[in-house]
UniProtKB/TrEMBL annotation:
The lineage of its organism: Bacteria, Bacillati, Actinomycetota, Actinomycetes, Kitasatosporales. Keywords: Carbohydrate metabolism, Glycosidase, Hydrolase, Polysaccharide degradation, Xylan degradation. It comes from Actinacidiphila epipremni. Pfam families: Glyco_hydro_67C (PF07477), Glyco_hydro_67M (PF07488). The keyword Hydrolase applies. Residues 450-679 form the Glycosyl hydrolase family 67 C-terminal domain. Residues 133-449 form the Glycosyl hydrolase family 67 catalytic domain. This is Alpha-glucuronidase.
Length: 682
């Protein structure tokens, strides 16, 4: 199989396969994914001198499907004691018996994931004895959404909110057909456990709408490239397709002609792509068409599409990102944060079983710091998926280092009902009600995949957290470092690892310090969302976000005097967020309008916190650049990668200074309160 070799190998460099490639390997079983395992083993052993052997004697590694006959003795020993079906199609067992390392799975996907698990373990997988251990993904669905356009948008380009070049799938209205690159991408995703991909923008325009019809062969070609790595392909669809494509006069979801149109469309898709995953839908949001035009509900619209997909086992991912984007900024009763709950919570229990409501992790829009969306706890009778954003729209756009694993781990570990209750991870992993995790991809056609080479760590961490939401983000960063920067056997990797941790471990909080304090959001330049503009969105129809005046700052979202948003949470958090005294400082301005002299838990005032954090964040960005520069000439990092990261860090330092100066100057002029330390504020 032709795999692209002219792009950065990311976390699958050839050297990472050395431990397997130097050994004699047995692969038992049949099927497309088992053949992928064989090809991977053949490639590794061909480079490093091991071999793919039969089931005789003298082998070091066994990959076996549980049903393969005859199962070699070591594999049978590892499998003994495990109940059939316990692993499912994606789980696997790993053990080491009498000097033989064994991976056993019940399905081909499990065997493939087991292979990549051994790659992560490296030489440690081939030492001593290892008791059999099961590895099963916590979440059934682990999905990436691409916001890729077939034709370049005049502002967004070929990838909306993409910061790594053009689409790897589409260009100038046509399929790129760079299938080696797509296969290389699928391989990277499978290595971190991702099993579903949507390949076009949720803002579906005219060209993308036709992927359901005359462009279906292009979609099938992509599905063929993803399939050998256990990844099901999905499409974002235009709710108005029956009108745009079918010459119908309506897209009313209760109209029988419309329902028949979608049923026929689904039939054509599954005839071309039998394992097609389903539709992703953004409806009645930011100008996209939807059921509201016909007096229908979101459940009406989603269930109509679900009925079309149900005979084939497909799903509808219906996005809950719905709000009034034509607000009057003078109206303080309208609160964008409330919108998703107000729209969807009353419809709990009305969605079909094959509808997954896709909810952004926060109530706004992937801000640097948000509370967890109350919708996640409000719909126990609806399948929910939590949506994250790997592409760094509001966290530096892959020009800044901002490792998001710690943020996502906080979201997944959050307990909406308080201590001892279920977590967000528990809800999305529930075998009947959970819809898994979805993230917006950060990949483009850049040679490093993500533009900023260190932004690859976010894609890696998303996949690994979707497999195991309890994983430690720092440990995942170690995994990524050890795979991506596999040292020469004679080199000490400790200095490189130390530098990368110094740059990346706290980078999310560093970014927060020099940008948006205490839960304030959207202080970015409108449109492209890069760089500071404190009032950029404050007087626009998109909403108001900080309400800064001469006396204070923040949005009153309390039940007592504000928009009532705090009342959307279960009691444990509703009471915490309602009172200034108990609201966490990092979210204070999201929930409360407070005087500049309000004293935080740290003992400093709000205005002094703004000054201090922006000075500190800019200094930390400069320290990150200085640490990276220490690698110059060491040979621990490829020269071109070193230069790319340094160039991005130069921009981060410049931009952090701009954030510091604009935000501090704004609030000094607004409040009239000087910096207690006498530092220069423009």
């Amino acid at each position: 199989m032709d795999i692209a070799t002219d792009v950065h190998a990311a976390w699958l460099p050839s050297e990472a396969f050395r431990p397997i490639g130097t050994r004699r390997v047995v692969v038992q079983g049949e099927g497309e994914l088992v053949e992928t395992v064989r090809r991977e083993v053949e490639g590794a052993t061909g480079v490093y001198g091991g071999g793919l052997v039969g089931t005789g004697t003298g082998y070091d590694v066994v990959f076996a499907l549980a049903g393969a006959q005859p199962l070699v003795g070591e594999a049978a020993g590892v499998l003994a004691g495990y109940e059939g079906g316990a692993l499912g199609g994606e789980g696997f067992l790993v053990g080491r018996v009498e000097g033989v390392t064994v991976v056993v799975a019940e399905g081909g996907a499990g065997l493939l994931y087991g292979l990549f698990h051994l790659v992560r373990l490296g030489e440690s997988a081939f030492r001593g004895e290892l008791a059999a251990r099961a590895h099963v993904p916590a979440l059934r669905s682990r999905m990436l959404d691409h916001w890729d356009n077939l034709t370049a948008h005049p502002v967004m380009g070929h990838v909306e909110r993409g910061y790594a070049g053009g689409s790897i799938f589409w260009r100038d209205g046509e399929a790129r057909r760079d299938l080696p690159r797509v296969r290389a991408y699928a391989r990277l995703l499978a290595a971190v456990g991702i099993n579903a991909v949507s390949v076009n923008n949720v803002n579906v325009q005219a060209a993308e709408t036709r992927l359901l019809t005359e462009r279906l062969a292009d979609v099938a070609e992509l599905a063929d490239a993803f399939r050998p790595y256990g990844i099901r392909l999905h499409l974002s669809v235009n709710f108005a397709s029956p009108v745009v494509l079918g010459d119908l006069e309506t897209a009313d979801p209760l109209d029988e002609g419309v329902r028949a149109w979608w049923a026929a469309a689904a039939g054509r898709v599954y005839a071309a792509i039998p394992d097609f995953g389903g539709f992703v839908v953004k409806a009645d949001s930011e100008g996209q068409p939807g059921p509201f035009a016909y007096g229908r509900t979101h459940a009406d619209g989603a269930n109509m599409l679900a009925a079309a997909l149900r005979p084939y086992g497909g799903q509808v991912h219906w996005r809950a990102f719905v709000y009034d984007h034509r607000q009057d900024w003078r109206d303080r009763t309208t609160d964008r944060a409330r919108a998703a709950y107000d729209h969807f919570a009353p419809q709990d229990g009305e969605f079909a079983a094959n509808v997954v409501l896709q909810v952004k992790h926060g109530p706004m829009d992937f801000q640097t710091r948000e509370p967890v969306s109350p919708v996640i706890a409000a719909m126990p009778r609806t399948r929910l998926a939590v949506e994250l954003q790997v592409t760094q729209e509001y966290t530096g756009q892959q020009r800044h280092v901002c490792y998001l694993g710690p943020m996502w781990r906080e979201v997944l570990g959050f307990g909406p009902w308080g201590e001892g209750g279920k977590s967000v991870a528990d809800l999305v992993a529930d075998p009947t009600a959970g819809g898994g995790l979805v993230a917006v991809s950060n990949v483009g056609d850049d040679a490093y995949w993500t533009g900023h080479p260190l932004a690859q760590a976010n894609l890696y961490a998303f996949g690994r957290l979707a497999w195991d939401p309890a994983a430690d983000p720092v440990a995942l960063l170690d995994e990524w470092i050890d795979l991506t920067f596999v040292p020469l056997l004679s080199r000490d990797a400790a200095p490189l690892r130390s530098t990368l941790h110094a740059v990346m471990d706290g980078s999310w909080r560093t970014y927060e310090r020099y940008t948006a304090p205490l839960g304030v959001g959207f202080m970015v330049r409108p449109g492209h969302h890069y760089g500071p503009d404190v009032d950029g969105y404050e007087y626009t129809p998109w909403g108001t976000y900080h309400y800064a005046d001469r006396d204070g700052v923040g949005v009153d979202r309390t039940r007592a005097t504000g928009t009532g948003y705090t009342g959307q949470y279960p009691a444990a958090w509703a009471e915490v967020y309602e009172a200034r005294e108990t609201c966490p400082d990092e979210l204070l301005l999201f929930f409360h309008h407070v005087p500049y002299g309000h004293v935080l838990g740290s003992g400093v005032t709000v205005i002094q916190h703004i000054y201090d954090t922006h000075f500190a964040g800019a200094e930390e960005a400069a320290e990150m650049r200085a640490r990276w520069a220490e690698l110059a000439g060491t040979g621990l990092v490829d020269a071109s990668l070193y230069a790319r990261v340094l160039e991005r860090l130069d921009e981060q330092v410049r931009c952090a200074g701009e954030w510091r100066d604009q935000v501090n100057a704004y609030f000094w002029r607004k409040s009239g309160v000087p910096d207690a330390h006498g530092r220069l504020i423009p």
